[in-house]
Write a structure and sequence with these properties.
disordered C terminus; single chain; globular; 7 strands
C-alpha cells in the first residue's frame, strides 16, 4: 500500500524514474510468474508464449504491471485453479494477456477499472481487499510506454486483461514518467 501511494504521488508529480533499456519479454514473464507462483498453491499459472521478443522499456515497471495483473487474477478467481499468460506480437507491438477464470467484472464497471481508487462493486466487498490503485498504476506505466491496456470480461466467467506495448523505444523517453 505504501509503495502504491508513493508511486501514485511520483506519477502525478512527474518524478517516477523511468529507465528504458532493451529486455527479453519472455525472460521477464518467466521471472515474474515464478515469483507469483510461489505465493499461490491453488492456482497454476500457465504460459503460452510466442517467439521471444525484445522490448525497449523500463523492465522493472513492466514487471510491476504483470505482477499486479497476476495477483489480481489470483485474488478475483478464488474458485478457479488456473491462470493463463499469453504473448503475441505483430512486428510492431507485443501483446501480453493475463486470463483468469474467476468472478469477472460487471459490464458497467469495466470502463472505470483503470481509474484511480475505483473498486468494482461486489456483494462481499470485504473479501477483496484493496485500495483501487493497482490497475491505475499499471495503466499509467503502460501509457508512459506508449502502450495500451484493456479488459474483456464476463461475470462468472473470468477476465482477460491485455497490454500492448510497442517494441521500439517509447516515444517519451525522458528520465521520468511524467510524460505529457
Amino acid at each position: 500500500l505504501t509503495e502504491d501511494l508513493l508511486d501514485v504521488t511520483r506519477i502525478e508529480g512527474g518524478t517516477l524514474p523511468f529507465r528504458p533499456a532493451p529486455f527479453n519479454v519472455d525472460d521477464l514473464l518467466t521471472e515474474v510468474i515464478d515469483e507469483v507462483q510461489r505465493v499461490t498453491t491453488q492456482h497454476q499459472i500457465a504460459m503460452e508464449l510466442s517467439a521471444p521478443v525484445t522490448l525497449v522499456g523500463d523492465r522493472d515497471r513492466i514487471g510491476q504491471v504483470i505482477t499486479n495483473l497476476l495477483t489480481n487474477a489470483i485474488k478475483y478467481s478464488p474458485q478457479a485453479d488456473r491462470i493463463v499468460v499469453r504473448t503475441s506480437h505483430d512486428g510492431e507491438n507485443v501483446i501480453i494477456t493475463v486470463q483468469d477464470f474467476g468472478i469477472g467484472i460487471p459490464n458497467q464497471d469495466q470502463p472505470y477499472i483503470f481509474d484511480r481508487f475505483y473498486r468494482v462493486s461486489v456483494d462481499d466487498r470485504a473479501a477483496y481487499a484493496g485500495m483501487g490503485l493497482g490497475l491505475y498504476i499499471a495503466a499509467e506505466f503502460v501509457k508512459r510506454h506508449s502502450g495500451s491496456i484493456w479488459v474483456e470480461s464476463h461475470e462468472g466467467q473470468g477476465s482477460t486483461i491485455s497490454v500492448s506495448l510497442p517494441l521500439g523505444a517509447p516515444q517519451d523517453s525522458h528520465t521520468d514518467l511524467a510524460g505529457e
